[in-house]
Every structure is written in C-alpha cells, then in structure tokens.
C-alpha cells in the first residue's frame, strides 16, 4: 500500500526510519504546513515526493495517510483525507474533542474506509507477552491494576514543548493513550471512571534548546489521579503527572487471583516482563514470547494494512482510540463535575497478536 505522511515534525523521523522494515507498505510522499520541512525530510529519507498537505491529499496514487500533525488538527486532517478516499492512521490522541472523534469514526464508516490510531506500542513484545501470560492463566482471574506515569514535564527536553500544556495536551492526553491502550488490551474496555485533577503550576519555563528561557502558560491539568472500573470486573488506580520529580512506582501491574504481573513501560515495545505467582517467593523475569521489542513505531500501520487487505478490523482501530478518548475526557470531567463518569462508548478487546507476526512483517 502506498502511504503518505502529513506532518514532518519530531515524531516523523521514527516512522520514516522504520518504514523500510515492513513489507506491506511504503512511504511515497511527505507533506507539511511548511513545504521546506517536507522537502528536508524527503531528501533525508529518500522519499520520492515532498508536498503541501493539499497536494498529498490530491495525489491519486496515495492509498493511506499517516497523520502526524499536532492534536488540535488531527480531526481536520483525518476527515479531509477520508473524504479524499484514503485510509488514515493517526498519532495519539484520536482527536481533542469527543465530537471530533465521533465525526472521524462516522466519516470512515460512510466512506467504507478504515481509521486507526497510535499508540501501537501495545502490539510490541512486552505487552503482547503480558497479554499471553494473562490469557494463559498465569495470574488467574485479574482483580485489579495500577498504572503510573509520573515525570517532571516535557519542557526539559522537547525542542518545542508549548503544545503539551495546551488543551488536548497535559499528561493525560499526551501519555494517557499509551497506558490506556495497554490496559484495554490486557483487561478489556472500561465501564466507569472517577478522577481528581489539578494544575501544579500555571506557568512553566523551557530549559531545552532552542527556546531556552521562554515561558509557557499552562492551560490543562498536569496532575490527574483516577480510578477505572472495567466491564469484566477489575478496577485500576492510575496517576498521570507532569508535576513529579522522582518516584519508585511501577509502570503497570496487574493483580490476579493466582499472582501478580509487572508490565513494562507502555511507551516502549520491549520488556522486561516480571511474574510472581502466589506460590513463588521471588519474581521471575519472563522471556519475551513475541517480536518487535525495539522501537517499532509504524507496526500499527503494518497491522492495519494487513487488516484492510484481509477485510478485518485493525487492532489499533478507531473504536478503541475513541473509547480511550472518552476515558480521558471522562476522568477530567469527573474531577470538574464531582461525580463518576459512566462510559457511553465501548470497544472490542483487541485480539492478541499471534506469535510469529514479526517474521511475517520484518525486513522487506
């Protein structure tokens, strides 16, 4: 399938580097609001065409668009691409608003096209190994979970961090999708959420280059504590924070009737995965059962192309991403309204990837 990338910012590099690994799609064009940036990426990664966004959308040879724009325009670009007859896979989150997310899903259905969304890290070796351990009964029936993403903020390293502190940013919308996609993959969809959110600082100072010393106005909560009740019964406690300098908490742990599973960082594809059953005195590191343990961003695109060609639903699909979007909005809404949020959306728990999927989709 011939693919075009819209948005040539920082994240585009890894998609372009990894595209050569997958046999079922190729990047044929890149586009950006700033044409010179698209031309620079095209030259750097030997991409045949450098376009404006409109030129790429009008190219009849492009079947599929990877939308790497900023969250504020995810929906606009995705809908325009769908209306031009192209499948769309976007960076997270699906959209800023639920209304825009719903429009994206509905447009894809109307056009008979597929929409998918990052993150695809839950398709990697670490979380797929964790899924296999749960499915095979190693911790018994899952009862509860914890999930923690607690850092001091992106202004310390990102070259242009301001959008992380605008609406549609913050730790929930930036990092929440990694944790929530992993949790839904492991435990199924969520029925109800409760949250408490606050803003640790109203202004941040950039300490990275090239904007060192510039002030950022914070417009979104940066400390969010929440409880998630899953449809199948488990309950999870989750903290998303840009206000934490250090901690010693795990990324994700799943607690079952027969033991505990320590799940690796869902912002990565690899391990380590640790298991401690009720009758063991020590934790065991479990060998990874699946492939794609390195940075394999673009794996979701390859899996989605597979699904399109087979007439099936992709695992990193729009319904999953919309459900995650509602979870995030629901947590923040619960905090501001002072009550539980009952989810109006649901989704299918993604099928586990078969062992050997990497052999089918590695280097051309």
Automatic annotation (TrEMBL):
Q: Reply yes or no: does the keyword Ribonucleoprotein apply.
A: no
Coiled coil feature spans: none
Q: Where is the Gfo/Idh/MocA-like oxidoreductase N-terminal domain?
A: 1-115
Q: Does the keyword Oxidoreductase apply?
A: yes
Upper lineage: Bacteria, Bacillati, Bacillota, Bacilli, Bacillales
Q: Which residues form the GFO/IDH/MocA-like oxidoreductase domain?
A: 128-261
Query: Which key words tag this protein in UniProt?
Result: Oxidoreductase
Query: Per its record, how is this protein called by name?
Result: Gfo/Idh/MocA family oxidoreductase
Looking up Pfam families in the UniProt record yields: GFO_IDH_MocA, GFO_IDH_MocA_C3
Which PANTHER family would you find in this protein's record? BCDNA.GH03377
> Which domain of life does this protein belong to?
Bacteria
InterPro entries assigned: Gfo/Idh/MocA-like_OxRdtase_N, Gfo/Idh/MocA_oxidrdct_glycsds, GFO_IDH_MocA-like_dom, NAD(P)-bd_dom_sf
């Amino acid at each position: 399938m011939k693919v075009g990338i819209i948005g040539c910012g920082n994240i585009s590099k890894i998609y372009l580097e990894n595209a050569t690994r997958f046999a079922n799609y190729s990047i044929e064009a890149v586009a950006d609001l700033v044409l010179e940036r698209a031309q620079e990426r095209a030259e750097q990664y030997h991409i045949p065409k450098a376009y404006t966004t409109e030129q790429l959308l009008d190219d009849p040879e492009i079947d599929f668009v990877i939308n790497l724009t900023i969250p504020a325009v995810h929906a606009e670009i995705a809908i325009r691409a769908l209306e031009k007859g192209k499948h769309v896979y976007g960076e997270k989150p699906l959209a800023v608003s639920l209304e825009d997310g719903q429009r994206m899903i509905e447009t894809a259905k109307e056009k008979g096209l597929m929409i998918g969304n990052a993150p695809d890290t839950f398709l990697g070796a670490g979380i797929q190994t964790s899924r296999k351990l749960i499915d095979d009964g190693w911790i018994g029936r899952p009862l509860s979970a914890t999930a923690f993403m607690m850092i001091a903020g992106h202004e310390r390293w990102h070259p242009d961090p301001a959008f992380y502190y605008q609406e549609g940013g913050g730790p929930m919308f930036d990092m929440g999708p990694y944790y929530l996609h992993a949790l839904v993959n492991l435990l199924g969809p969520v029925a109800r959420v409760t949250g408490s959110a606050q803003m640790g600082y109203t202004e941040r100072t950039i300490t990275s280059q090239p904007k060192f010393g510039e002030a950022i106005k914070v417009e979104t909560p940066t400390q969010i504590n929440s409880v998630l009740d899953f449809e199948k019964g488990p309950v999870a406690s989750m903290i998303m924070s840009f206000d934490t300098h250090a901690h010693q908490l795990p990324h994700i742990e799943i607690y079952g009737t027969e033991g505990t599973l320590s799940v690796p960082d869902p912002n990565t594809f690899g391990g380590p995965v640790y298991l401690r059953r009720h009758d063991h005195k020590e934790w065991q590191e479990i060998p990874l059962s699946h492939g794609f343990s390195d940075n394999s961003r673009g794996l979701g695109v390859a899996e989605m192309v597979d699904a399109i060609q087979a007439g099936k639903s992709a695992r990193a699909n729009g319904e999953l991403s919309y459900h995650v979007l509602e979870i995030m909005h629901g947590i923040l809404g619960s905090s501001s309204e002072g009550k539980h949020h009952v989810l109006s959306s649901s989704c299918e728990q993604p099928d586990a990837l078969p062992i050997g999927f990497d052999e089918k989709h590695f280097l051309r």
